[in-house]
Amino acid sequence: MKFKRGRGVIARYRDFLPITDKTPVISLGEGDTPLIFCPELSKRVGRGCRVFVKNEGVNPTGSFKDRGMTVAASMSMERGARALICASTGNTSASAAAYAARAGISCSVILPAGKIARGKLLQAFAYGAKIVAIDGNFDDALGIVRELGERGDFVIVNSINPDRIAGQKTAAFEIVDEIGDAPDYHVLPVGNAGNITAYWTGYREYHARQRSTKLPAMIGFQAAGAAPIFHNRIIEEPETIASAIRIGNPASWKQARAAIEESRGAVDVVTDEEILDAQIWLARHEGIFVEPASAAAIGGLLKCCDSNEAVYSFRKIQEESRIVCTVTGHGLKDADVIMQRMRELKPVAATLNAVRRALEL
Ligand code: AN7
Fold first, then answer.
1. Which end is more exposed in the chain, N or C (fewer Cβ atoms within 10 Å of the end residue's Cβ)?
2. CA of 209 to the centre of ligand 1 (A)
3. Long-range Cβ pairs for the range 340-345 (8 Å, 24+)
4. Angle at which helices 272-286 and 292-306 pack, to 10 degrees?
């Protein structure tokens, strides 16, 4: 297969996708994201283990959703769709809006009022989506979207649409293609559980086609206040600073459970404090700035190293294991979270001395 860099996941992985010669390809050059070796994270794990971060925040709309959206939008066009719709905690709406704009069709997004990171809301507006905010949470919004979809007015592009999962599994392919085999562990945040489902599908498909010799243990992290899979019950009023994963009744719950069990992985929780600490830690130690939901995976990885309460402990893992951690969205999407931690900037005089003093020189 010829590797077509920067031309999107359909060009690169067409053989593994439901795309035909008749499918109009709607792409913004998504995928092919950096797999970054992280020396400081690796030190935290120890035992000669190597930790890599798959930085999905550098996709066209700043999150992993674009991988699935290129496939969902393209298949929708092939089927003659005129309008897309989704419920969203933010990133799906930004991505759907962009790909609908690219396809020249309309997009409606149903969002929980007041619970969308500002950058994501601005994206949906900029790309021209019809935006409806509801007095309810993501789970309520998805319920309404399902009903609207059944009437046939819209194609639903949430991850209940199998084309979304098909596109997102390409992230697993990229990882195997780059390191030459599957990693031993794959750590990622879990909200509606589409992504963990997609990665597991991708790893299994590549393994079945002998592109890898093993399968990773899938380790998912939920926010402590929004952890239905961990607690094994619907959370009626999910709450977390990581608004992207503020979900109480995930659509791909069963598939996520299956991925965790079949891979002998685990699901665990991280507190909001652990999430925010991990966000800053990653930015300052590895130079990678991610949104809070993504930091849940990093906080989770650190928990596996440090905490006696972790469901999965990395203290006794095999030496020289390879760990991949997916960070799902860019830090700039949720500027307000960081702003809250910054002190107000007071200007000093525009003189060398004043600046030297401010720099404590
Ligand atoms: C940055 O945009 O559900 O477990 O509506 O935006 O596949 O849901 C976003 C989810 C992780 C969780 N990280 O992924 C939405 C939405 C980020 C996210 C998740 C989301 P899934």
1. C
2. 29
3. 341/276, 341/280
4. 90
CA distance 57 to 33: 8
Q: Does residue 169 contact residue 201 with C-beta atoms inside 8 Å? A: yes
Q: Mention every residue, 6+ apart, whose C-beta is less than 8 A from residue 166.
A: 16, 17, 18, 68, 71, 198
Does ligand 1 have an atom closer than 6 angstroms to the CB of 328? Answer: yes
Question: Are the C-beta atoms of 88 and 244 separated by less than 8 Å?
Answer: no
Q: How far apart are the first and last CA of the chain?
A: 56
Instruction: Provide the whole-model pTM.
Output: 0.97
Q: Answer yes or no: is the C-beta of 325 below 6 A from any ligand 1 atom.
A: no
Residue-wise pLDDT tens digits, 293-322: 999 999 999 999 999 999 999 998 999 999
* Per-residue pLDDT tens over the stretch 74-122: 999 999 999 999 999 999 999 999 999 999 999 999 999 999 999 999 9
For residue 293, the ligand 1 atom closest to its alpha carbon is 13
Tokens of 185: 């562990």
Q: Residue 91: CB within 6 Å of ligand 1?
A: yes
